[in-house]
TrEMBL record:
Gene transcribed to yield this protein: OpS4_0
UniProt-listed PANTHER family: HYDROXYLASE, PUTATIVE (AFU_ORTHOLOGUE AFUA_5G10180)-RELATED, MONOOXYGENASE
Keyword Magnesium included in the entry's annotation: no
Record-stated family: Belongs to the paxM FAD-dependent monooxygenase family.
Name of the protein: FAD-dependent monooxygenase OpS4
Keywords: FAD, Flavoprotein, Monooxygenase, Oxidoreductase
Length: 435
């Protein structure tokens, strides 16, 4: 048996666990710090590359049940009057990129993953606070002193990763200078006639773009809930501390002069939740011994390309496939050498790619937050000429080639291609037995 310990039961960790558990010779244990799995949270976008991975795992239809079907459009709007600057037709995603785009509540996403993980036999241990790792054994030590040993340890423990902090003790998450302000609305909270054009069209994300801020709004749970997240990159505003009661009027005042529909929406909100945004700059390596990193632990990023969780899904699926396809014929030092080769192969597929996406996300946020002026007018002019198949642009959000590479990633084909390369190089003999 190949025993894999996954630290962290988030989206990336559970994707990796489910992928691994589909192989008969793999035993997977997930160690999660929380004593109870949190079903809170807000909306999350599932772009095409992540949706394709979910389809490969047989989970896409289960996710679609939790939504009102695939997303239909993404609209970039002028901040002060809601004028449409760019209309991305997401109904073409299947045609252009091979999978749909989804809008889902994070709790629903997690429920589908947790249910599947348990169904395929993943052992999930809650209340396991990992505070040490041995890269040679490999093993992890819990705060209570208990030690778990395995053939491979995967650190999927998020932006404040313990595994990363031990692997790279001098590396810390870097503040982007932005804060996110989130709210959830019920349909009854948005009963004003001002909102009817927002509620009557299913599956549409709207993004108001303005000076040092943007606001994204979209429906969840078949149009019974609505997600709003405002990203503010104004250091003078974000440095002001205020209690939760003062947060809502403070943000509304900061957005004075923005689209009246958005301001009326803030008037309808019960409260806002505020948190800073961070990124993890490109690490020199993700793997040490038979220990590796995935998701936010390896490459946390701003949300402006909707790729944070999606790249974590890619990581989990590719790593799980490569490990699952590896043979058990070797043992001892030869076995460890084989597993290290697999981790190097995984890192080779994802390390540079995710670094480029982190950079692209940061750049896209900067473009979303342009003040009025020549740069903003040049951006809007390019938006007006957008063609999903032909546009050539320095802006990742609209460049056709970038979107094909980003959204059209077929993780199953990528992983199988790497398996073929490893086999040809004699790195391992194909085990490949699925349940």
């Amino acid at each position: 048996m190949l025993h894999v310990i996954i630290v962290g039961a988030g989206i990336s960790g559970l994707t990796c666990a489910i992928t691994l558990a589909k192989y008969t010779h793999v035993q997977v244990t997930v160690l999660e710090r929380a004593a109870v799995m949190d079903k809170a949270g807000n909306g999350i976008q599932v772009p095409c590359n992540a949706a394709h991975a979910m389809r490969c795992l047989g989970l896409l239809d289960k996710l679609l049940v939790k939504t009102n079907g695939p997303a239909t459009a993404f609209l970039n709007l002028k901040y002060d009057d809601g004028e449409i600057l760019l209309h991305k037709d997401l109904t073409r995603c299947e045609e252009l990129y091979g999978a749909p785009w989804l809008l889902i509540h994070r709790a629903d996403y997690m429920t589908v993953l947790l249910d599947e993980a348990r169904r395929v036999g993943v052992r999930i241990r809650l209340g396991c606070d990992v505070d040490g790792v041995d890269f040679d054994t490999p093993s992890v030590k819990l705060q209570n002193g208990h030690v778990y040993q395995a053939d491979v340890v995967v650190g999927c423990d998020g932006i404040n990763s313990t595994i990363r902090s031990i692997m790279h003790p001098s590396t810390q998450p870097v503040p982007t200078g932005e804060y996110a302000y989130r709210a959830l609305f019920t349909r009854s909270q948005l009963s004003s006639p001002s909102f009817q054009h927002l509620l009557s069209t299913a599956g549409i994300s709207r993004c108001w773009m303005g000076p040092l801020a943007n606001a994204v709004f979209y429906p969840l749970q078949e149009g019974t809930l609505f997600n709003l997240v405002i990203a503010i990159a104004d250091p003078n505003f974000n440095s002001n501390t205020c209690d939760e009661q003062a947060l809502l009027p403070s943000v509304r005042a900061r957005l004075s002069g923005w689209d009246p529909t958005l301001l009326e929406m803030l008037d309808a909100a019960s409260h806002l939740v505020r948190f800073p945004l961070y990124q993890v700059d490109k690490l020199p390596f993700w793997s040490k011994g038979c220990v590796t990193l995935t998701g936010d632990a390896a490459h946390a990023m701003p949300p402006h390309l909707a790729q944070g969780a999606a790249t974590g899904v890619e990581d989990g699926f590719i790593l799980g496939t490569l490990l699952g396809r590896s043979s058990q014929q070797a043992s001892g030092p030869a076995r460890r050498a084989q597993l290290r080769a697999v981790l190097r192969a995984y890192e080779g597929l994802q390390h540079d790619r995710t670094a480029q996406i982190v950079s692209g996300s940061r750049f896209t946020g900067m473009l979303d937050h342009l003040p009025q002026g020549p740069d903003q007018r040049a951006r809007d002019a390019e938006f007006a000429m957008y063609d999903p198949e032909k546009t050539v642009s320095a802006m990742p959000w609209i460049d056709a080639r970038t979107n094909r590479k980003l959204l059209g990633r077929k993780v199953d084909e990528v992983a199988e291609g790497e398996v073929a390369r490893l086999l040809a190089a004699g790195e391992f003999a194909d085990r490949g037995t699925k349940l």
